[in-house]
Design the sequence.
């Protein structure tokens, strides 16, 4: 589901519990798509950013010999409907602390590359066995399992290489570039997304919190943290970004599962149930999942309180929470 | 096949063409295991290094929750019989230019991690379909295909993270650490090993040079180059290390295939033939492959000529060429 398609769609969700939350003064961006701030054109901000990110990604993965591996990489990274949430969150977090887009863009693009790589591998038949993603055939459906594994294996290092070759060292000290690389490596590896995927395949029901945080919270956490590191945010600010990003990533996933539950036909078989993985909805049911979503939304918003001093620059970070919670925010991409 | 097992084994190879090459003055280390230099105890050098590398790798991958992913990572990285050629070459190249082991070790260990990751993925049923490696069951044979993919996915980023977290910045400027990360990323990705593996699966017979260089030369080239970068070698010296490392990696593989051809039973079926991939032996036959090996040996040795000014410190780099060509060098590990 893309930002472009959610407005007024049947999948739009307004969690009743969340709607009862009072609008605090820090909510510059409403959960309704009709009330964006007059001081800050959020739709233009998002649209411009996504356009710039798409152009950068297109440039970064040019087809060369042997063509097919680059075509497989481009197929997933440049897929239509990609929300670009990791790179946008990275840029938004960097700009919050006065960092520039030029400083953030190489890392933002790298985040999209490693995100695409992890999704390619997650979709494999031996993993989540998803033949399609965002309404299009999965990478392995088009290119075969062997090629999909290699495309992922190539996108992970390309991300790290892109950061090193493209980050302007007159804007970002090398020590920060190294911290960003370590942060992304932590996030995708055995302390992060790989562990989440493993437990989603193998773990018992008690692993649900771990799976949600690692499989769905890590990319968002890492994106926010990298933006902060690049701009020179302080340790306490980085810790806030970490908690904020993780909460947003898990919130998005919980709401996604609630929406899926609503559109269920009631005829799915055991294999389909297994494929859905261990979610709060499958373990605790819709009602408790919605309560968890409410808590996550509050948690994410609370972390942004400390950033209100930065004025309108915090608005994009609010928009992630609002979109994750209600899917009521849209931009044309 | 490990360094510990090759001495006097039936697999020992003395390529006749290579043996006709005159011993040049630069050959401090003979291709025979009995004539190491009195000034430089090569066996002790190798044994100590491998022991230190094994201890560092053991420390770097401690089992934590969820245990099984770490066990799968350790299974391949700490496998008995691993030759540790990439890390030893990295340390040897770093020491050649006066760099310290403390400077080289984090990168050396990272090279072994990404090397293990690429071997785990290469062995998968949809790739080279190798149920065993170094006489032990392959990672996927023990842990399953899903787990083997995840173990590889976790080892690649762990390598990058290990470099950032362990390289002492008082010994290695951050700019060099960034160059090393970019070099490893280049080597494992779509411009390197992933492209070689892809063409080994899909490419036509004309791709044999590309496959040999990318699939088998990259790791060795990258290891030598990283050692040079860490020690501050000049651009021309790095170019020499690059050509040297690539030649050694391909040489090792060509000789391996010649040895395999010699021990063939003559009963392998089509699937087994396919599994052998596109080698110089399978495309051109043993005789031409041995001529190619001779050329590669000469090329690698020639690149070391410029480093003779560093005295005994060039000996370990000679030992790689000699071992790759003749398997006549051994250390106890």
Sequence:
């Amino acid at each position: 589901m893309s930002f472009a398609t959610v407005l007024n769609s049947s999948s739009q969700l307004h969690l009743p519990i969340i709607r009862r939350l009072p609008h605090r003064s820090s909510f510059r961006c409403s959960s309704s798509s009709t009330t964006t701030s007059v001081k800050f054109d959020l739709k233009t901000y998002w649209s411009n950013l996504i356009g710039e990110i798409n152009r950068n990604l297109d440039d970064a993965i040019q087809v060369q010999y042997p063509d097919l591996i680059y075509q497989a990489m481009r197929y997933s990274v440049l897929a239509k409907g990609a929300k670009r949430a990791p790179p946008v969150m990275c840029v938004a977090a960097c700009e919050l602390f006065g960092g520039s887009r030029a400083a953030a863009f190489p890392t933002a693009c790298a985040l999209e590359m490693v995100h695409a790589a992890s999704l390619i591998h997650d979709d494999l038949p031996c993993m989540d066995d998803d033949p399609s993603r965002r309404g299009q055939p999965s990478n392995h459906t088009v290119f075969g399992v062997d090629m999909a594994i290699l495309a992922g294996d190539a996108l992970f290092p390309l991300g790290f290489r892109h950061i090193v070759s493209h980050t302007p060292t007159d804007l970002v000290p090398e020590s920060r570039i190294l911290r960003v690389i370590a942060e992304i490596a932590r996030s995708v590896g055995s302390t992060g997304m790989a562990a989440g995927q493993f437990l989603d395949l193998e773990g018992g029901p008690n692993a649900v919190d771990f799976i949600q945080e690692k499989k769905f919270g890590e990319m968002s956490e890492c994106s926010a943290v990298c933006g902060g590191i690049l701009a020179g945010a302080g340790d306490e600010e980085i810790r806030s970004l970490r908690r904020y990003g993780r909460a947003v990533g898990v919130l998005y996933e919980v709401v996604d599962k609630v929406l899926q539950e609503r559109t269920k036909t009631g005829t799915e078989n055991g294999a389909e149930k297994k494929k859905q993985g261990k979610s709060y909805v499958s373990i605790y049911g819709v009602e408790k999942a919605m309560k968890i979503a409410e808590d996550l939304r509050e948690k994410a918003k609370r972390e942004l309180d400390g950033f209100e001093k930065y004025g309108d620059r915090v608005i994009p970070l609010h928009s992630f929470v609002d979109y994750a919670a209600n899917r009521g925010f849209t931009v044309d991409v």
Chain B touches chain A through 51 residues (CB under 8 Å). The mean pLDDT of chain B is 85. Residues 235-262 of chain B form the longest helix (28 residues).
